Each structure stands twice: as structure tokens, then as C-alpha cells.
């Protein structure tokens, strides 16, 4: 698995370990021994690797001889992709071609019929599909489909709609909002600066989405499937729910509109069709939008109160734990 220390990587690695699987996961070079995210990765064989180094990536595949590969490593911020288009292409597209080549060679050696899951994105199909992020993801998808259609590799794209959790990076607007609500509630700040609040997305819980990934890769036939809830909310909805979860009133003058935070191109509405995944995989999202936002805010409040940045009991909403 690439990107094991990221949001999806943590949830997926823990799910695989819980079912008795061995997990080898790549982390960025320099992933510190004291990094708080290590608290989630007990029992995972961590391998420092820059996925842009194709030869090293292919060598790792040859050494491990995996039966399943989940490619989750990515520069995943659309906004950042406009600032660093070359890095985005090098990180999000080129490694997939190296993975495909390595898995085809592994299959030729015999004894292993490897399967590949590629974390694609709904951004590829939106009206903002000319973003560097979307273009790189589209190129990766093409490599996966070519491997499947031309070489018979079991390779699939999970077309992931927005999925969040308390592990979401602070640079993402969802976590920016939940962290700000927690800080305002505890008197640590007075306002939050945001861009376009009319953006509408299909937001789900990352801890559920990784189960869809596992089912997609275990399916009898390789299918590219959208993964989402089928329900849409605006960023304004998320903001209001986060403030309510923190015990605050309406956001009101605590929100500063900042034109500098607007993207060069943005898709106003994204919503998944959940029926293909339900029909093929028997999977539907269960965690509601309100439960997701409430959980993220609750964890951000705990982080501030305890000074503990990461803990295993931060991972799951109360209803799942119960």
C-alpha cells in the first residue's frame, strides 16, 4: 500500500490488519520515529519511499510480491495542484505506470496474480476537470484501464467522492472548519477565513470508504465504481453543523470571506450515484453527514483540551464504536 500514513491509508491498513493480513506500507522519506501518526500503524511494515522514484517503487513490488496493491499516495489538494502542477503530475500519475509495469512483471514470474486498486477521484469528471489534480488523476486512470483491457491485469479505479475524518489534514477546508469551530469554542481564536461557501459536495466518512475499496478489489470481476453517499451538502451546511457541534451559535461574523481562497476553477456540485457500488459490492455509506461533522469537531476539541494530537480512540464515531 502506498501512502499508508495518510487518512485513507491508516483506516485501510488497520482494517486489513484486523482481518489478519500482512500490510507493507510506504511512507514519505523522513517520516519521523516520533510522528504522532505512528500511533495508528502498529503492526504495519513501514517502508520509506518517494513514490516518484519509479525504480525504487518497482523494486519494492518485486521484493514484497504482493497479492493486492492499493495506491493511495497522492498530492490530494486540488488547490495546491494549481501551485505545483509538475509535482502533482509526478506524484499522482507517473507512479501508477510504474506500479502497473511492476505488477505485470510479477505476474509473468508466476505464482502471484496481483490486483491493483487505484484511488481515483470524482474531480476527474467535474467541470473543474482541467485542474492539474484532475488531469493527473485522469492519466492514472487511463494507465489502470489499459493494464486491465490490454494486459488482463485485475486493476480497478475507485472513483472516490469527498471523504473525511479526524485524520484529514489541516490544509483541507473541512478540517480547517472543524478545527476552527473547536478553537473558537475554547476561546483560542475569534474567526475563520474561508472562500466559496456555495460549493456542494457528497461528503462521507473515510473509515467506511476503505471497506468499499477492499470489496472492490475482492470482487469477481474488475469494475470501476463511484464511491459516495449519494447525498449532497454545501460548505455552508458543514460550517453551520460544525459550529453547532462546538456549542456555538450561527457562524455570523465569525466567518471572514477571503477572495484569495477561491480556486481558479471549481465544480459547484459533486454527488455520487451510490447504486452501482450497492449492487456490485453490497456497500452503502452508513455514517451521516451530521455524525461525521460532529465527530470531527469532538476530536478537535479533545485534541485542544488534552494536547494529544493522535489517539486510536479518535478514529471512529461513537455509533460505530458502540
What does this protein structure show overall?
The protein is of the alpha/beta class and 322 residues long. The chain has a domain at 1-160: NAD(P)-binding Rossmann-like Domain (Rossmann fold, 3-Layer(aba) Sandwich), CATH 3.40.50.720. It has helices spanning 7-18, 54-64, 78-83, 85-92, 94-109, 132-151, 173-185, 206-218, 235-245, 275-281, 289-306, 318-321, and strands at 24-27, 45-48, 68-71, 115-121, 154-160, 163-164, 192-194, 200-201, 204-205, 225-227, 233-234, 255-257. The strands form five sheets. The chain has a four-stranded parallel sheet with strand order 3-4-5-10, sandwiched between helices. A two-stranded parallel sheet has the order 1-2. A two-stranded parallel sheet has the order 6-9. The two termini are 29 Å apart. The mean pLDDT is 93.
Q: What would the keywords be for this entry?
A:
single chain; 322 residues; alpha/beta; four-stranded parallel sheet; 12 helices; 13% strand; EC 4.2.1.47
CATH architecture of the domain at 1-160: 3-Layer(aba) Sandwich
| Helical proportion, percent range | 40-55%
Q: Give the radius of gyration.
A: 19 Å
Strand content: 5-15%
Report on the biggest sheet. 4 strands, parallel
User: What does the overall shape look like?
Assistant: globular
CATH evolutionary superfamily of the domain at 1-160 = NAD(P)-binding Rossmann-like Domain
**CATH class label of the domain at 1-160:** Alpha Beta
Oligomeric status: single chain
- The first-to-last residue Cα distance is 29 Å
Order of strands across the main sheet: 3-4-5-10
| Class by SSE composition | alpha/beta
Family: Belongs to the NAD(P)-dependent epimerase/dehydratase family. GDP-mannose 4,6-dehydratase subfamily.
GO molecular function: GDP-mannose 4,6-dehydratase activity
Keywords: Lyase
EC number: 4.2.1.47
Amino acid at each position: 500500500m502506498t501512502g499508508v500514513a495518510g487518512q485513507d491509508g491508516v483506516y485501510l491498513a488497520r482494517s486489513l490488519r484486523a482481518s489478519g493480513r500482512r500490510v507493507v506500507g510506504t511512507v514519505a522519506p523522513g517520516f519521523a520515529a516520533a510522528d504522532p501518526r505512528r500511533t495508528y500503524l502498529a503492526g504495519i511494515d513501514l517502508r520509506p519511499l518517494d513514490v516518484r522514484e519509479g525504480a525504487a517503487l518497482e523494486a519494492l513490488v518485486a521484493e514484497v510480491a504482493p497479492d493486492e496493491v492499493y495506491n493511495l499516495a497522492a498530492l490530494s489538494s486540488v488547490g495546491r495542484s494549481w501551485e505545483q502542477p509538475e509535482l502533482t503530475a509526478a506524484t499522482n500519475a507517473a507512479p501508477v505506470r510504474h506500479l502497473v509495469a511492476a505488477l505485470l512483471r510479477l505476474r509473468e514470474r508466476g505464482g502471484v496474480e496481483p490486483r491493483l486498486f487505484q484511488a481515483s477521484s470524482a474531480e476527474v469528471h467535474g467541470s473543474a476537470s482541467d485542474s492539474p489534480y484532475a488531469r493527473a488523476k485522469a492519466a492514472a486512470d487511463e494507465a489502470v484501464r489499459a493494464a486491465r483491457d490490454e494486459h488482463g491485469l485485475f486493476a480497478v479505479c475507485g472513483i472516490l467522492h469527498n471523504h473525511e475524518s479526524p485524520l484529514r489534514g489541516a490544509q483541507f477546508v473541512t478540517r480547517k472548519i472543524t478545527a476552527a469551530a473547536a478553537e473558537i469554542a475554547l476561546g483560542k481564536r475569534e474567526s475563520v477565513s474561508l472562500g466559496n461557501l456555495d460549493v456542494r459536495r457528497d461528503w462521507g466518512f473515510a473509515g467506511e470508504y476503505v471497506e468499499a475499496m477492499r470489496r472492490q478489489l475482492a470482487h469477481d470481476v474488475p469494475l470501476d465504481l463511484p464511491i459516495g453517499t449519494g447525498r449532497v451538502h454545501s460548505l455552508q451546511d458543514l460550517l453551520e453543523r460544525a459550529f453547532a457541534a462546538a456549542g456555538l451559535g450561527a457562524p455570523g461574523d465569525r466567518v471572514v470571506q477571503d477572495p484569495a481562497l477561491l480556486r481558479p476553477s471549481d465544480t459547484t456540485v459533486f454527488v455520487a450515484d451510490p447504486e452501482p457500488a450497492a449492487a456490485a459490492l453490497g456497500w452503502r455509506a452508513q455514517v451521516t453527514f451530521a455524525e461525521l461533522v460532529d465527530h470531527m469537531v469532538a476530536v478537535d476539541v479533545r485534541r485542544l483540551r488534552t494536547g494529544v494530537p493522535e489517539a486510536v480512540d479518535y478514529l471512529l464515531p461513537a455509533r460505530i464504536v458502540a
